[in-house]
Amino acid sequence: MAVRRVVPNLHTQAPTEQREFYGLLGFEEVMDHGWIMTVASPSVPSAQLSFMTEDRTAPVDPDVSVEVDDVDAVYAAVRDSGAEIVHPLRDEEWGVRRFFVRDPEGRVVNVLAHPR
Predict the structure, then answer these.
(1) Which of these, 58, 61, 64, 47, lies nearest to 9 by C-alpha position?
(2) Across-strand partners of 43?
(3) How far is CA 9 from the centre of its chain?
(4) What is the rounded CA–CA span in Å between residue 115 and residue 13?
(5) Percent helix, strand, coil in the chain (nearest 5)?
(6) Its pTM surpasses 0.85
(7) Torsional sign, CA 12, 17, 22, 28
(8) How many domains, in total, are found in the chain?
(9) Which of 8, 9, 108 is nearest to 58 (CA)?
(10) pLDDT of residue 115
(11) What is the pLDDT of residue 50?
């Protein structure tokens, strides 16, 4: 199992203003689904921030997203550890396979993979 990227999910009710502000720091919009928008550094594309109003399909909003190369293997390891799964493993309509798990401090982690 390998981590591909880690993205903080910052909650906001003003994603446009966030995009404009972080644009001043050199970030550019790379994704916008209406409820979540991601900006990235053009020179270091894995340096990203996401701004979320609310999660579209999950019962809670994640604090951080971790993209992995094998989400099914990570899900099995997390489930077997006894950690609290707060959103089951599923394929989402926008093209990711993901689940949410609560870390030991109570933060919600969105673990995902993009199909290859």
Answers:
(1) 64
(2) none
(3) 6
(4) 30
(5) 20, 40, 40
(6) yes
(7) positive
(8) 1
(9) 108
(10) 82
(11) 96
Distance CA(75)–CA(17), nearest Å, equals: 35
The domain in which residue 61 lies consists of: 3-113
Cβ pair 5, 67 in contact under 8 A: yes
The DSSP code for 64 is E
Contacts of 83 (CB under 8 A, 6+ apart): 101, 102, 103
CATH code at 11? 3.10.180.10
- Given a contact cutoff of 8 angstroms between Cβ atoms, the answer to whether 92 and 98 are in contact is yes
Q: Which residues of the chain have pLDDT under 70?
A: 116
Terminal CA-CA length for the chain: 15
Cα 73 to Cα 16: distance, rounded to the nearest angstrom: 36
